[in-house]
Amino acid sequence: MQLMDISGNSFNFLRKRLCVCICVAVVLLSGIENAFANNESIRFAEHVNLALRRTAHHLLLQNGDSSTNIPPVNQIDANTFSVRIENLAEYRKLPELLKQSLTVQKIERSYNVMVFNCETGALQLGYNMLDLNQPGGVPCENRDGKAGCFVVQVSFEPNLQKAAAEPFSAWWIFPFGTGLAGLGLFAWKRSRSRKSSNLPVEDKPTSAFETSFGNSVFNSQNLTLTTLDSQHQLTYREAKLLDLFVRHRNQVLERDFILKSVWEDEGITVGRSVDVFVSRLRKLLATDSSIKISAIHGVGYKMEIHS
């Protein structure tokens, strides 16, 4: 009869593996989601870059300038961009040209525009896109301005639709985690069906795992010892030692044989362990007068079973 090493380690191991799998999956899928978000931000920045460069180009052409270099567009943050225009004479034409450029790039987000003097940093023109449709038009649009170097800065409103959806962007975590948990539970149950639990069970054990000796019954699956009306839960070593005695009932077992059979898998054996565990079994079997574990001086032990 082969004893099975029963412990909660199997369940704990599977639970840890399941947690690791869920964490790795969440990280990977979050990384994928973040990658999509980053790509969207990059694409938006590219469209704004092209729109501002187009605007600067046409502003210079309006002034008859086709040679002044347009420097790179500066991205101040995720929603704010600026471009420096060295020879801007009439910034009154800026609102309509910027609107056209943003339309070409299919940018529909609301925005604010500020035009600063390169040298003094003074604000020359400022408006919101909604001002384009107001009766009075863009503030300061028709005021005379001197030609010079100006910085056109455009600040877009955050993508509120995306921001509102962000709290729910991880909706997949719950069903995905539930699925993994189900797989983990299925694996645990299969593992448990192959091994018995180290806790007492209420179901009636199968006879294949039961051995009767004297007036007692030993169940190697549940690691239980039933003596008369009492049931005792055994440790793994207690069960292994009892199994050895039961299979060699009424035989003298040498100490070295016991140590090798019960403790060999630990790699280190201690002779005193035999005496300690025999003492435990004697106490558990004390109510069964038909069973006696006797010490054979200088040799080992013998389980005697009387009818």
UniProtKB/TrEMBL annotation:
InterPro entries: OmpR/PhoB-type_DNA-bd, Sig_transdc_resp-reg_C-effctor, WH-like_DNA-bd_sf. Gene3D superfamilies: Winged helix-like DNA-binding domain superfamily/Winged helix DNA-binding domain (1.10.10.10). The chain crosses the membrane at residues 168-188. Keywords: DNA-binding, Membrane, Transmembrane, Transmembrane helix. Residues 208-305 form the OmpR/PhoB-type domain. Pfam families: Trans_reg_C (PF00486). The keyword DNA-binding applies. Residues 208-305 bind DNA. This is OmpR/PhoB-type domain-containing protein. It comes from Dyadobacter linearis. The lineage of its organism: Bacteria, Pseudomonadati, Bacteroidota, Cytophagia, Cytophagales.
